[in-house]
Amino acid sequence: MKLRSSLLSSALILAAVPLAAQETTCPVQVGVLHSLSGTMAISETTLKDVMLMLVDQQNAAGGVLGCDIEAVVVDPASDWPLYAEKARELLTQQEVDVIFGNWTSVSRKAVLPVIEELNGLLFYPVQYEGEESSRNVFYTGAAPNQQAIPAVDYFLEELGVEKFALLGTDYVYPRTTNNILESYLQDNGISEENIFVNYTPFSHADWATIVSDVIELGSDGSQVGVISTINGDANVGFYKELAAQGVSADDIPVVAFSVGEEELSGLDTSNLEGHLAAWNYFMSADTPANADFIAAWHEFIGDEDRVTNDPMEAHYIGFNMWVNAVEQAGTTDVDAVREAMWGQEVPNLTGGTAVMGADHHLSKPVLIGEIRADGQFDIISQTDPVAGDAWTDFLPESAVLVSDWKDLGCGMYNTETETCVQLTSNY
Amino acid sequence: MRAFLIAFLCCVLSPVMAAAQDLQTVLQRYAEEVESPGRQTVGVVIDDLLAAELPTAPAFLGYWQDRQIVRNQDDGLFYRAGEREGETLELIDLDSGEVAMAVPTASVTEVRPNGGVRRELGAALVRFQLADPDPAVRRSALASIARSPDPDQIAPLDASIADEPDAAIRDEKVRLRNILAARFGDTPEIRVEAIRNLGGSIAPISRAALAQILSTTEVVTQGDPDGNVARLLDVGRDLTRVEAYARLVDAGLVPPRVSDTDIRNALIANIAEGTVGGWAVTELDTVAARRAAYVALEAEGVVPPFITEEEIEAALSDHTIALVYNEDDPAITQAAEQTLAGIDRRVAASNGADLAIDAVSLASIYFLAAIGLAITFGVMGVINMAHGEFIMIGAYTGYVVQQYVPDYTLSLIIALPLAFVVAAAAGVALERLVIRHLYHRPLETLLATFGISIALQQLAKNIFGTQARPLTAPGWLDGQWVMNEIIGVSYIRVAIFVLALLFLGLLLFILNRTRLGLEVRAVTQNPGMAASMGIDPDKINMATFALGSGIAGIAGVAIGLYGQVTSEMGANYIVQSFMTVVVGGVGNVWGTLAGAGLIGMLQKGIESFNPSNTLAAQTFMILFIIIFIQFRPRGIVALKGRAAGD
Amino acid sequence: MRNDVFKPSTLLFLGALAVFAIVVTIMAGQGMVSTSFVKTLGKTLCLCLAAIAMDVIWGYTGILSLGHMAFFGLGGYMIGMWLMYARTETLVAPGLAAQPLPPTEGEVRDAIGSQIFGVVGSSDFPMIWMFADSLVLQLALVVLVPSLLALVFGWLAFRSRVTGVYLSILTQAMTLALALYLFQNDSGLRGNNGLSGLQNIPGFEDVPQSTLSLSFFWASAFALAAGYLLFAWVVSGRMGSVLRAIRDDEQRVRFLGYQVEHYKLFAFVLTAAVTGIAGALYYPQAGIINPAEIAPIASIYLAVWVAIGGRGRLYGAAIGAAVVSLLSSWFTGGAAPNIALGDYAIRWTDWWLVLLGVSFVCVTLFAPKGIGGLVDLLQRRLPVDRTGDFGPDKGSKRAEETAQ
Prior knowledge:
The complex is a heterotrimer of chains A (427), B (646) and C (404). Chain B has 646 residues and is of the alpha+beta class. Chain B contains 26 helices and twelve strands. In chain B, a hairpin with a 5-residue loop joins β11 and β12. Chain C has one domain (8-402). Chain C has helices spanning 8-29, 35-60, 68-97, 105-117, 135-159, 164-183, 209-235, 237-248, 250-255, 260-286, 296-309, 314-332, 348-366, 373-379, 399-402, and strands spanning 195-196, 288-289, 339-341, 344-346. Chains in contact: A-B, A-C, B-C.
């Protein structure tokens, strides 16, 4: 009955979807492509667990299209080429209907050619640098305009920051984000010499000189703010050095894009209190949906101390959208589901509704939180939902580009020349 | 918009409400703004509160700043949060200062002003705090002035100087007064004198004041610029030609350049029947052809003229681009220039000293990491790739101790010797089980110990997880040793430096002044002969290895205190440590010191050329070392004798 | 050892390789072997080629290079540049052609550049991409760039008589410096992102990956066979004798009037070039190359493979590389069954590295001839010898290797 009504509604809404090829084989297979070993395991294992929880929940609620859902978990072992290999295995051997996975941008870029070649479907749950819109990928994490830009606005408007230190680990996400921010800041009247950019290697430990340089920035009395895209354990040394040099969050506020509840859970947070982070979700969000989600997570994982974080919410939204889209399309066929995904709405855990745009990015609210002594965040600012922008408006090359898979059928459309630059992604 | 509205309302209403009222009434008028204040909008509320001249207002601003204010959702009123007992919270009435009621915590909203708002509140509070009996409050008021100087602050600051009991705070007040006078003084004479007085200090705030006075605006003029000109910008040195021309265009003095993109767009706009400007569209696949077609269009008058290089040249020579001081009085800017130049020289010297201190600090870390290796590698000739893992073992020992001993000082006192013992034990086990069998095959020792290294790293991951573990320094190591406004070094780095010195002394003592040292040196130089003299080389090797590994363990605690404890922390230091030993010269403690010093200086030195790229500094440092070793293969301090080969 | 290129072990190895290649092809045709496994096997063959090069420089010449994977990576980068350039060119061509004006050369280059470097926030081609549009030149660079690096580095190092563990540490520093350099975005090779999408071969867009993977598998097999023959020829005959003599006693060879540095340099550059070729075949199968691939650890693994397989014999190195890398992917792939020990279960994804490390120590201690030593056991020629017959003799002093 449920199946029929959903078929009917999908036929009404999307008359274009061919109703012929709709035999779905049970069980429906969902690939989970997260590293369970190696350096990324610490972050990605949690996402694998959350996927298993969501699948369990959905099966308890009757599965999808009358079938049970089965999660196929593979381990790409934090090895980027292995991501591509495992993705190929998932699509050709296990024949999964959708993949939820990846954390780093490099691993996503490694998987992209395989997904596009074999016409798979990937849900990518982590905040990333943008400048991409693949036909076969739905980005449920934040694009720069959903995390970085609002955080900078907050610095400019609320904290009155006049000089910016953009500190990042040397890889693509900080590089691209900082490029966008530099250009955005210059548009907002911050001159080039008032922006200090620095890149450090992964696991960098010697922060003394860099922190001194940042303090020196404020020697002319300007308010200095740090935008941190520092990744992983290098953060420990960075915040320790800030504290050692007597810099408090009141003197020089730091807003981080890669420090969340999970990262704080293993740390001594006394040095970090008062510093900021920008995400689309905080565990401390006070909504019934979030309370349910946290309770379900604690029950599933069997540990009351485990935290929830932003990428977990992204998977929650992504998975529920996919289930709805499959129900609406009446099939797990990638092309039909893709089309049904546009405009899907799922309630956020922080309140409001997330909407999937035709550029495969979500529209979500942006939250800014202040680190508390207990490793949680005080939400001190929450915006209205912001639509993810695949191609940033703040770099000249990509300002002319838009992505619209629905009407233009193109993920990289040049509005100036009115041509589709390319259909497959640049990797 | 909202700010404007509030400001408007405020203007209209304020005469009416100046009459007697209580704090809560004022707050309720701006309830929304008080509950979630914004930096740019909160000013109205503060002004109004102060305008009402309520005795409770300053205290309220302080509570607000300290985030002690809550709003009761039931009655919508604001209170100060009192004692919290479990799930209930006492609410203190703002006007009377007495406990009004106790309510469940769930029914109040905490008012949490952000950093920007709190700074505004601090600035507003200054005038009440300058004469506060508590010195800490007075200091924070001064810090608040320093953060956002304002002409209005001159009068209250002046008034408070005479009665200031604390000499240090009075000096600070005088200095701030001077800075305010330099920027906002009434007459040029007062300002020039104040500026001259600033010369003695390299404090950031003095430099900030001077920089503000010397701020400039860029102007483009035909002929000589008016006003107090700082300097003329030179095309070619300060600006590229394209940038300079763009400035002229922005000033509306010349027509814009026609770029290749403009040409392309213009051509596309004028395509007619497959041709444009007399050229077939298919021919326009070179820049030259497109320019020619554009010139043809220009002749038809349908596009703006193409600006040639000669025209740009002429325009640039016709115009002047200059930086003009925002301050009109040349006497003031001249005084500020001179004072700032003097300060800058001293700042540069201080910066150099600061860099040197950073380099010494880094060198002492490298020294600590490498000294254990210098013993095992240098003295025994054993390549121990698992040396980094002994560092890791020491750090994890420190972490585990902190789990059981919550007092950080005590735990550090326990952890240091314990780390030595644990790492030394691991070292002895390694020596007995593996290295002993490979003394004649150094290359294979290298590989076998590498096997140990990856096994130990993975074991640490399995036991402690991949996430960084905290190793917290005791409170007395927090903060930094400030020598002047620029030169400072955190106490933890001083401690590491002291530790490195201690070990240097200890090792020199052991090697040169003890029986063990004598025997170690004997075995190093000629094991066969030493054995004939009754020394047991096996025992000596074991002792040396235990010593080297144990020191690595202690280095691990030190490195963990300032950085992070991960399973890969040792691996991050191993290549650097080897290079330290090799560059310094094998078999010599002084050599290791020289190597660590050289590498530390080099890294910081290269970094200072390009502070935005730490990776480049590391790359060039390694390249330099590779080349250095070509010319001094035995290192800086080459040891004579057999241990060094040949 | 007989100075003969076509000794039985060579013929046996080539024969086994041919049979293996044919069997894999047939099984792939029947669908018994998946495309990704064919790729894994093809990549393994490339690693075998790098391992026999490593064996020549370490097992025969006695130079423990801990930087050979730098050459491997450079080879991959060189071919990767062309692959990315040419593929991006085919991607942007339709878009450019659809515009009202035919594109200029500069526009084509800009379009490709903004595609390739868009992810790292730039659009200009750095100088090192100068030849990226030419397959022939980039193929030449696959050999030339690693050779040149090896030549400069080797000339400097051998000239100043850096030997033994010092040389090992220097080579390690070299690969670390290169990796750190490439990690920077300013290096012009897309920093940490590296080059990706290399499995899509320009001009063969319509050929399915199953066919492409088999072609690369065969190309790798041919390269391995050719490399094996080349090195078998090098290490036999007079050249081989001198190299082994250098390994055993460099000073003595020098006193006999040989230009030791020239021989060492020759071996170093030749193996670097072959390793570069192996890399150029490996990365189109892996699909992505980034600087982490040339971190010092990779080169150490290469040495580990050779040691486990058995130094001083080419087939030993190849077998070591194949066995360890395949085992490694089996264990880390989660396919190996977990071992339950009461409360604790040994998950091989967690414990594989421990096992590898420990077994490696055991091989060094108890079986210095590695897997190849089994062959001797089968032939009953020699008793197990804990010190091995490479490196200095028992009579020689340890100062020989620690010298300088």
